[in-house]
Structure formats: structure tokens, C-alpha cells
Specification:
The chain has about 160 residues and is of the alpha/beta class. About 20% of the residues lie in helices and about 30% in strands. The two termini are about 30 Å apart. The mean pLDDT is about 85.
Length: about 160
């Protein structure tokens, strides 16, 4: 899984409140080294007390690998602190559109892995919808397309132009 490729999985408080994800390596399609620890789970929120106390990330056997971080306004500084304090170098941003948008806007996304399901839904936040949040277009270099069941995955390195 993608989570086995990273040191941490970063998500937003809203994702935890709405989806209650585990953000762990589960049922890998290829063996994971017994030396590979579960990735750190980093939850960004404006109010740590708004994260339900019974959230999987706070109660499961890997709860000691969960960090709840409040009021982050400088994502580059956060990434530097995570590297300096925990040696977290590769982060999977598994979040809603608004947080993904902020990382793209800050130029902090190196690779894009997008999954598209054959469903059309409406409502919710704009996330990475078209709009003036980027100064320049972001392109995928050498994208690779894979199909998993009915889902389509597009993966490629990010190029900010």
C-alpha cells in the first residue's frame, strides 16, 4: 500500500471527525518488512479537543504514533520540525481537498497519487476545484495510470511551472 512507502500519514481534523480512519498499513499486496513500523499519523486541526476521544487513531494499538498538531499556518516549518524531531521525511497527505489545496499552494507536493471512483457527488468544499489558488499550473510528469477494480489511479511527479 501507499502507506507502507512513507514515514507518516498526514490528515486533517475534519477527515478524522467525519471518517474515523485508521491510517495504518493493512493487508498489503506485497510483504512489508518486519522492520517497517506503522507510519506516524499526524492530524492537523484548529482545536485538538474537537477530535473525538474514541477516534481509532487515538485508541488503537498504534496510538503512541499519533500526533495531533494545532493551528499550523506554515506547512514548510511543520515539515522541518517533523523531520528534525521524528526523522519523518516521506509523508502521505491523505486528506480532504482543502488541506491538499494548501499544500499544493505552498509548493510542498512532490508526487500526486489520485484515485478516481466511478461516482459523481455534489456538495461539500471546493477543495482542489478550479480557481485562482495557484499562481501557476501544476503538471504531472510521466503519469502512470492503473485500474483497481472500478477505480482509476493516476500517479506522477509534480512539476510546478
Amino acid at each position: 500500500t501507499l502507506r507502507a512507502e512513507c514515514d507518516a500519514v498526514l490528515t486533517g481534523g475534519n477527515t478524522v471527525r467525519l471518517d474515523n480512519p485508521s491510517l495504518t498499513i493493512r493487508k498489503p499486496d506485497r510483504p512489508v518488512s518486519p522492520l517497517k513500523e506503522q507510519p506516524w499519523r499526524i492530524i492537523l486541526t484548529h482545536d485538538a479537543s474537537s477530535i473525538p476521544a474514541d477516534s481509532i487513531c487515538l485508541t488503537d494499538e498504534f496510538r503512541d504514533r499519533t500526533l495531533v498538531v494545532e493551528n499550523v499556518f506554515n506547512y514548510l516549518e511543520l515539515l522541518k520540525k517533523l523531520y528534525n524531531n521524528k526523522k519523518i521525511g516521506t509523508i502521505l497527505l491523505e486528506a480532504g481537498g482543502c488541506l491538499v489545496r494548501e499544500f499544493l499552494k505552498a509548493g510542498l507536493v512532490d508526487e500526486w497519487v489520485g484515485f478516481y471512483a466511478p461516482i459523481i457527488i455534489g456538495g461539500g468544499t471546493d477543495g482542489v476545484a478550479p480557481g485562482p489558488f495557484l499562481e501557476h499550473e501544476v503538471h504531472l510528469e510521466q503519469p502512470v495510470v492503473n485500474i483497481f477494480g472500478d477505480d482509476v489511479c493516476i500517479r506522477g511527479d509534480i512539476c510546478y511551472r
